[in-house]
Amino acid sequence: MNYTPRVGWFHHWLDFSADDVARDLDAIAELEADHVRVFPLWPVFQPNRTLLRPRALADLERVLELAAERGLDVCVDGLQGHLSSFDFVPAWLTSWHRRGFFTDPDVIASTAAYLTAIARACAGHPNLLGLTVGNEVNQFTGTVHPEPYPASEDDVTAWLAAMIGALRSGAPGVPALHACYDATWYDDTQPFTPAHAARMGDMTVVHSWVFNGTAQAYGPTAFETHAHARYLTEVARAFQADPRRPVWVQEVGAPRNVLPEHTVAPFIEATVDQLADTPELFGITWWCSHDVSRSLADFPELEYDLGLIDERGTIKKAGLVLRDAMRELRRRRTGVATQRPGLLLDPTVFTRRDLAPGGAFWERYMELAKSGRHPRVTLAPSTVGAAVEV
Q1: In the chain, which end has fewer C-beta atoms inside a 10 angstrom radius, N or C?
Q2: Element spanning 84, H or E
Q3: Is cis: bond before 75, omega within 30 of 0?
Q4: Domains delineated in the chain
């Protein structure tokens, strides 16, 4: 489960309270989660390019300890970066000190040092599940961002290699990965490409949000809406050079801006059910644990009701539905479907826009999936090796 602290949201790092975190993790454990994903705020941990705060790193370690006491594994994201419409970029990278996030040598070196420090602090904890470079850092390169940091595909390749290497340096043997929002798969202008997502790091990560136009176009109860997360896993697997590489649905949630309340439970149940026989599925990490408190201003409205636990700490119906759906998934997941139709994906024919909801490839996939089993997507042979791997 993606852990969103009940008291203070991610600003809790400023006034860290182990008691508050313990209460939050108790509620998460009550929902029978087996892991949490946690999010240090980059400017709090590295307020100056050459200053890494020991107190902040100690607080992060305390979160891992508290999680372990409750039987929870932990994945730590480094660069936040971006969370729920807010950017958290250190002062040494903005305004008068603005420079290339992905291209400036000093920034790259300092960012790598931060990730190594995060990894080293966590490495000794037996419940460390993995380390992610950061949450959806590709949004900083996108044309939709009001103040983007431009980067080319080659820049991204070099940057990811440095960041993943930094995590591995600090925590050898711990899975090191990176995470993108779905523009990587759907937007032809994105310099973070499907090959980056599927071939760099130790797992392929997908983030599935049906407010991307899926629920708006097809409706909140449509097959396409319920199948979106599964579709992303199948497309992601097609771009992998190693068919045994794990795929992690690291974010999926039920946004009420496109899912009326009466459709939330069916959405949760169907989404988990569709994922049950996904090949090489590493895990499902729901967004998110707690609602954002109404005392905090200027969040998108959907954030105030996105949690499985409300701002008072009470488990919501959605939380119970997810708990039961995950129980059923664990019971059923003894193998994956082997007899499935095939679907060829040739990137020289289909653009990333064709992969997006409503695109030509998307429609072909959904037609097959609705008629029986989800198809096994295969990349055209001539394009399989056309990417770097780290």
Answers
A1: C
A2: none
A3: no
A4: 9-339 (3.20.20.80)
Neighbours of 68 (CB within 10 A): 16
- What is the tens place of the pLDDT at every residue in 55-85? 999 999 999 999 999 999 999 999 999 999 9
Strand (E) or helix (H) holding 128: strand 128-134
CA distance 309 to 295: 16
Could you give the CA distance from residue 171 to residue 122 in angstroms, rounded to a whole number? 8
**The residue to which tokens 């925590």 are assigned:** 171
- At 372 the pLDDT is 84
Whether residue 388 is predicted with pLDDT greater than 90 in this model: the reply is no
The alpha carbon torsion through 150, 155, 159, 162 (nearest 10 deg) reads -160
Bridge partners, residue 252, by sequence: 208, 286
- Closest by Cα among 176, 94, 177 to 136: 177
Residue in this structure with the two tokens 């711990």, named with its chain if needed:
174
Question: pTM of the full predicted structure?
Answer: 0.96
**E strand or H helix that includes residue 282:** strand 281-286
The helix/strand/coil state of 194 is helix
- The closest alpha carbon to 86, from 289, 300, 252, belongs to 300
First to last CA, the chain: 27
Q: Which positions ≥6 away from 138 have C-beta within 8 Å?
A: 180, 181, 183, 184, 190, 191, 192
Q: What angle do CA 329, 25, 211 make, to 5 degrees?
A: 55
In sequence order, the β-bridge partners of residue 137 are none
Beta strand 82-83 pairing with 73-79:
unpaired
Question: CA-CA distance, 128 to 111, in Å (whole number)?
Answer: 21
> How many CB atoms are located within 10 Å of the residue 371 CB?
9
Question: Residues 361-374: what's their mean pLDDT?
Answer: 96
What does the radius of gyration of the chain's CA atoms come to, in whole angstroms? Answer: 20
Establish whether the linkage from the previous residue to 288 is cis, with ω within 30° of 0.
yes
Confidence band (pLDDT; 50, 70, 90) for 332?
confident
DSSP string, 136-160: SGGGGGSTTSSS-----HHHHHHHH
CA-CA distance, 136 to 208, in Å (whole number)?
Answer: 12
Q: Is the pLDDT of residue 336 over 80?
A: no
Cβ atoms within 10 Å of 17's Cβ, excluding its own: 14
